Amino acid sequence: MADWQPSALQLERQAYRRSRTRRSALIAFVSTVVVFAAVAIAVVNSPGWSRTRDSFFDLRTGWHDMPALLRALWTNVQIMLICEVIVLVLATLIAVARTLQGPVFFPLRLLAAAYTDIFRGMPLLIVLFLVGYGLPSLRISALPSSPFILCIIALSLTYTAYVAEVLRAGIQSVHPSQRAAARSLGLTHLQTVRHVVFPQAVRRVLPALLNDFVSLQKDTSLVSIVGVLEVVLRAQNFNSQDYKFVHYVFAGLIFVALTVPLTRLTDWIAARQGWNGTGGGVV
Amino acid sequence: MTQPMVLAENVHKRFGAVTVLSGIDLEVQAGEVMVIIGPSGSGKTTFLRCINHLEQVNAGRLSVDGELVGYRESNGKLYELRDSEVARKRAEIGMVFQHFNLFPHMTVLQNIVEAPVKVKKVGRPEAERIARELLSKVGLGDRADAYPSQLSGGQKQRVAIARALAMEPKLMLFDEPTSALDPELVGEVLDVMKQLARDGMTMVVVTHEIGFAREVGDKLVFMDGGVVVEAGDPREVLANPQHERTKAFLSKVL
């Protein structure tokens, strides 16, 4: 291959492609500059810009209160990590329960289906109210009363339903011939699910799973409504002192910074879909 | 007369309103190779899948090595066996599929040791030793660490055969093992199967390879429309088919 020389036709093609590339780069650059400039000019010249700037973009105040926000972030991270573990375990159990065959398991399947239907449909905010205020109002001493634990219960209930459905979709996407092969070797139903179907299912739905976890990370901000002191409630406290919204802007940026690594990871895994075990090709 | 390895008596199978098998009577003696041929939709594959209870028989009796498949009989009534009991019986019957059905997330070696380790509770080092032996037997001693996606069709099918053999089955079922292969690759799989037959394995082979039937088969069965149209010595049936339907089919495939 070393002595390969491009033909005249090939040289002409390459020159043409280079000129097209230059042209598209130029167009992209100019249009980006124009759009951003237009937006900036429109915003800065709006009638309320000076008040908006003082409230939302008072970077000095925002930066000053940033450490307090970051300390509050630790609560979000704790909730997120604990929920992710609980959700993974419960969702796996529910997804597998829904694959069990035979009339004996009908109640289990029904229960699992009813659970996912209810908690996938119910807004998280309402689940948080019901669990956060409803459970304590029963005044049963055995039930947890700490808002921190109650909000973990609420988030886990909702996200287990989502993740269980994602896993179930993955399980159903594994071709029945894989099951037939495993069963023909003498594996039981549960062995087949555990060693043959589930590993393939998880590989296929990993991007969707990570997507749900990104979403869970963001939704830890909602627990402020049951009085757990986390980033958003912290920002709200600052806001009620100085009436500035810059704290929310900073809180928002913190969440973006927190989720970006996970979204990048999701994209990277999705891009690698051709790896061993997905069964599909790299088309 | 010894007990047949496979005994089918009046086996019926329906899928909803469609009758796929309407009364199959067959027997395979231990050490015999029975080849089943027939057009698509004749019920060959379904019958094979009934033998290891991947499909349930609707009527009739089907037994392997003297034991009913998937059922136990008590006071003249049949009861379906529990999942784990069916699995235990399946472990004694190897099956090879048209589309190989290797586990794509496992290496060749893992594919082969999975069942011995998980089902027969063989120690992993011992299972791997046996797996490597089987791999060199099917001519793939150097591909133990490859993934199925890195193998050709013929290599995949030879791995699938090794995987089935790792369970030391007393009966092997082949479901059109060469139908998904390039003509060039068919030979390498058939060679492995011929060797297996010479070693005395009891085999039921659904195939369109008439040459294999003639050379290796002890019995040839021609199925059509869910019944056995003709059965007998392969050379006899192929040279001198008795039924019009068999003649018509053979004239197309020979």
Give an account of the 3D structure.
The complex is a heterodimer of chains A (283) and B (254). With 283 residues, chain A is mainly alpha-helical. Chain A has ten helices and no strands. Chain A has one domain: MetI-like fold, CATH 1.10.3720. In chain A, helix 3 runs antiparallel to helix 9 (231-242), helix 4 (106-121) crosses helix 6 (147-173) and helix 5 crosses helix 6 (147-173). The longest helix of chain A is centred in the first third of the chain and has 39 residues, at 59-97. In chain A, 28% of the residues are buried. In chain B, the strands form three sheets. Chain B has a six-stranded mixed beta sheet, with helices on both faces. In chain B, strands 2-1-4-5 form a four-stranded antiparallel beta sheet, covered by helices on one side. In chain B, a hairpin with a 2-residue loop joins strand 11 and strand 12. In chain B, helix 3 (108-118) packs across helix 4 (124-137). The longest helix of chain B has 16 residues, at 183-198. Chain B starts with 5 loop residues before the first strand and ends with a helix. The A-B interface holds A 102, 177-178, 180-189, 191, 195-196, 199-200, 203, 276-279 and B 49, 52, 54, 83-84, 87-88, 90-95, 97, 99, 101-105, 114-115, 118-120, 147, 149, 160, 163-164, 167.
